Amino acid sequence: MTTKPRILIGSPVCQKPDVLSMFLFSLEKLSTSALAIQYLFIDDNTDPTSSKLLRYFAEKHPGQVEIIRSQEPPSTYTCNESTHVWTDELVWRVAGFKNELIARAKEGDYDGLFLLDSDLLLQPATLETLLAAEKDIVSEIFWTSWTPGSLPEPQVWLTDQYTQYELKPRETLTAKEQYLRTYAFYEKLRVPGLYEVGGLGACTLIRRKALVAGVHYSRIHNVTFWGEDRHFCIRAVALGFSLFVDTHYPAFHLYRESDFPEATVWMKQIYGSAPVRVKTTHAISAPISRPKITLSMVIHNEADKHLAHVLKKHREYIDEAVIIDDGSTDDSVEICHELLKGIPLHLVSNPTPRFTNEVALRKQQWMETVSRNPEWIVNMDADEVFEDRFALGVHALLSRKHGDVCCFRLYDMWSDSHYREDPYWRAHHVYRPFIIRYRPNHRYQWKEQPLHCGRFPSNIFELPSFLSHYRVKHLGWSSEKIRMEKYARYKRLDPSALYGWKEQYESILDEKPNLVPWKE
After folding, report:
1. Under a CB-based contact definition with an 8 Å cutoff, are residues 386 and 313 in contact?
2. Where do the domains of the chain lie, and which CATH numbers do they carry?
3. Between these two residues, 50 and 88, which has the higher pLDDT value?
4. Are strands 137-144 and 243-253 parallel, antiparallel or unpaired?
5. Which residue has the higher pLDDT, 2 or 174?
6. What is the pLDDT of residue 238?
7. What's the Cα-to-Cα distance from 167 to each of 3, 174, 177, 180, 241, rounded to whole Å?
8. Alpha-carbon gap, residue 264 to 251, rounded angstroms
9. How do residues 387-438 score in pLDDT, each as one tens digit?
10. Residues near 345 by beta carbon (within 8 Å), at least 6 away in sequence
11. What is the largest CA-CA distance in the chain?
């Protein structure tokens, strides 16, 4: 009889009740049937409702949960929409709590300690995936905008305090080189996999070998780096352990109040449900203003494809539409007027198609759109549509976030009910921009190439960006007829695959591609 691995899930908790409620809900959704799980919480809460939530969790899981009440005097932890304020005293207070969790894991002869911050939401397969990695120290990735409007950053780094770009000894980089290497690192982490890093934290599995070897979070007296995770990581590497991050199942970091609408959407998408928020005097939300949303689109002979369907979906949330008809000879224009009736529509028709020079067409689309003085521009092709729940949440999403570029995952639908996933079709593993807030004073620049130039100017990421967990359905591959037409088009416009990927072009005709069911 095989003995189940014994894992202690531990967390120091000083948390708002509504955040803690979602964290505990997330823990209950973890896949643990092949594991023997125990929970250990260090209750450092200042809100009695949070302590009550921990006790209720223990009552629901008799014999599995231990709660240790902190004996430290209460401390002040400032947490607001801008940032979380960590004093030096707080950092080492938490380090002491984590050391206590390590000690209890060693005493209990556990196979591993899963250390978690209490503002994380985990995907069900997270813990089993970390165990399957068979690494002594491994974290699951999550991304955070540390200040409002900033680009989301991973909680892992490569060297020193928080350096997130490759740097050789004595190598000096310009600011631009640092920027490019940082974003290369981010792009790598967006691809699901297991990667060695120099630092990690907050969502970490520590196996027994590392626990027994003596890893801990105490201060290293001759290291001035701030934060207990740095001292843990330096000590671990000095003891001979490598550090890894898994990126298959990114966690959601519920970092600020304005993240709640998106967190709720994320939970419903991942778990199928989300808990009702705990009502406290601190959970009063300001009214959500309604941002103006302009749909921008290029069409060409779309009448017998997906145009009617996508316009019906878009009209549920847009305030205006700008459409470039690129020389259509069918009823595409009439469909636009009919289905967008009652919504301001600015439609420009090109007498002859310009799609053989995509950058010229995209520039035309952009200029016509910005001439309407837009606030938010939703730039969608005529075969792209957001998932159903987007219409209800988009105004909250754009009102709560302080960035200017909103990125989404796009799924290549191979039928009405399935999307394709294989080495050539992985668009949904990367976040791409579909919505941008127009900034008139920004100097926009384009990628000057006739094909695959991008729907937006190439330098939009000079503006602050953020991610959304709403998904985009790309219907442009969803029938064999359309696939054959596109294959022929790419072979005609890009025969040497100068602007695309030759193997992907050829894979369009695969007879038995790997298809995954789409779930709303």
Report:
1. yes
2. 6-271 (3.90.550.10), 293-517 (3.90.550.10)
3. 50
4. parallel
5. 174
6. 97
7. 44, 12, 10, 12, 21
8. 13
9. 999 998 899 889 876 689 999 999 999 999 999 998 888 889 889 999 999 9
10. 320, 321, 322, 323, 336, 337
11. 78
